[in-house]
Specification:
23 helices; eight-stranded parallel barrel; single chain
């Protein structure tokens, strides 16, 4: 789907913004979400935090996305405390999070009171840049989050989910960008969550946005298809203000392009990043040491998988789907699921595949394959999506599928959150004595089961019992490179009552 700018746009008129390229490092969030099913523990982030802070990145993406759920559900970590620990060590570089608009960090729409309070608390705990997106690119689903970010003094970055479909084109990108800026976006991100953006389109989109949009523009992509490095290069030449990268030992595959390659490519040019390759090498060595500890969660994609150009599944969803099929002893049916996903997506009106629509479409594809009959069983989330509770689908939903699944129930055509009553008062009552602070109430409102289990474990003294083993595990794993990054300091963090379980406890 080539992107065609207006014929009136001449090359000489385009502002390529010849400034140093800004790089956002994703290793503490999206890189391990894409490669390691989001299982990296805070204990493995802290020793390298100060080195990351000293590197000169424009921002460090450290929170949001799937990290919140995974921390509570599998790692017995408080995500709020992870943020506090990182903020203590990262004092110069802005902290960035990925916010799913009205879905916050969850998988359904939440009421405005929860969205607003979550944003306020995230800002209080150190988040500066909020990258806000909606899975179906419905601007109504960004209103509450954008307003809250601006109210609390954060940087609101409006994200446009890039996809390939008959209804997504260059006009869509420009129109959405204008809408987001009108809503108060301080910057715009083109979020290519599956690595579908080709070099030519990357250049043309960048040129047009730089001409028409008067806020900084950044590009986020993944290496899954093998296109991202080339798309970055063309976008950089066209004047993109910033790109997302991952340190080389956590780059490639379903992650982002390696930061060192981009830095080396631009050295001596007017887009020179100013980052030091020798300093980055120390960081890369640290994560090369840490990564094997999470081998059980590797998604197995060490190179390029061009099939993503057909199924369009983002990296994080790919690793989680492999885990899901493995648990069902159905890994041999992966190819069937990948072939079914585009069919489900077409039936559902071509939503971009990003959380939660990637899970909705992916789970339905798995059911269709494993049950041997399409839509014999339908998830609650899929039905809610078809009825409009996740926002407007980019294209009309297949009438036959809609009738089959919803039995003619009326669709909603209002902002979905307008139908929701405030949630925090009920969450506070439901949590009862476990509600030690407002952050606990927010965690419970977002993930009731996982949060309650975690908070009960914490109240029982679980962290204290595991502190000694945890400290021993970190020190045993430390290499000279890790020690040079002040790994010894981790022990002091472990002495807190809420600190994490150690390596000797199996990772969920």
């Amino acid at each position: 789907m080539p992107f065609s700018p207006s014929a009136s746009i001449g090359a000489a008129a385009i502002n390529t913004g010849q400034q140093p390229l800004q790089i956002v490092e994703t290793v503490l969030r999206d890189a391990h979400q894409s490669l390691l099913a989001t299982r990296m523990r805070t204990e493995d982030m802290l020793p390298v935090a100060e080195a990351l802070d000293d590197a000169g990145y424009a921002a460090l993406e450290v929170w949001g996305g799937a990290t919140f759920d995974t921390s509570l559900r599998y790692l017995r970590e408080d995500p709020w405390e992870r943020l506090d620990l990182l903020r203590r060590r990262i004092t110069k570089t802005p902290l960035q999070m990925l916010l799913r608009g009205q879905n916050v960090v969850g998988y359904r729409h939440y009421a405005d009171d929860l969205v607003e309070q979550f944003v306020y608390k995230a800002r209080e705990h150190g988040v500066t840049i909020f990258r806000i997106f909606d899975a179906v690119n419905d601007p109504r689903n960004l209103e509450a989050a954008m307003r809250a970010v601006r109210t609390c003094g954060g940087h609101a970055q409006g994200a446009i989910c890039y996809t390939v479909s008959p209804v997504f084109n260059g006009s869509s990108v420009v129109s959405l960008a204008h809408t987001l800026v009108e809503m108060g976006a301080d910057s715009i991100c083109l979020k290519d969550m599956a690595g579908l953006l080709g070099p030519a389109d990357a250049e043309q989109i960048t040129r047009t946005l730089k001409l028409q949009i008067r806020v900084p523009i950044s590009l986020h992509s993944h290496c899954t298809s093998g296109l991202a490095d080339f798309a970055y290069l063309r976008a950089i030449d066209a004047g993109i203000d910033g790109v997302d990268c991952a340190i080389s030992s956590m780059a490639g595959g379903t992650s982002q392009p390696p930061v060192e390659s981009i830095v080396a490519m631009l050295q001596g040019t007017d887009r020179d990043t100013g980052l030091d390759l020798r300093h980055l090498r120390t960081i890369a060595e640290y994560f090369a040491m840490i990564r094997p500890h999470y081998a059980a969660y590797e998604n197995g994609l060490g190179g390029v998988d061009a099939s993503v150009l057909m199924h369009q599944m983002p990296g994080g969803m790919y690793s989680n789907m492999l885990t899901q099929l493995r648990e069902q002893n159905a890994l041999d049916r992966l190819d069937e699921v990948l072939e079914e996903m585009p069919r489900v997506r077409r039936d559902f009106g071509y939503p971009p595949l990003v959380t939660p629509t990637s899970q909705i479409v992916g789970s339905q594809a798995v059911l269709n394959v494993l049950l041997g009959e399409r839509y014999k069983s339908v998830t609650h989330e899929a039905r809610a999506y078809l009825l409009g509770y996740y926002g407007r689908s980019p294209a009309p939903i297949a009438a036959q599928i809609l009738q089959q699944i919803t039995s003619g129930e009326p669709l909603i055509d209002v902002r979905p959150a307008d139908l929701l009553e405030p949630e925090l008062p009920a969450a506070e009552r439901g949590l009862g004595a476990l509600a030690g602070r407002q952050e606990d109430v927010l965690s419970y409102a977002l993930f009731p089961g996982a949060a309650r289990e975690f908070l009960e474990w914490r109240a029982s003294g679980g962290p204290e019992r595991e502190t000694v083993a945890a400290v021993a595990a970190v020190l045993a794993a430390a290499s000279p490179a890790a020690v040079s990054l002040r790994a010894r300091d981790v022990g002091r963090e472990r002495s807190s009552a809420w600190k994490l379980a150690g390596r000797q406890r199996s990772m969920g």
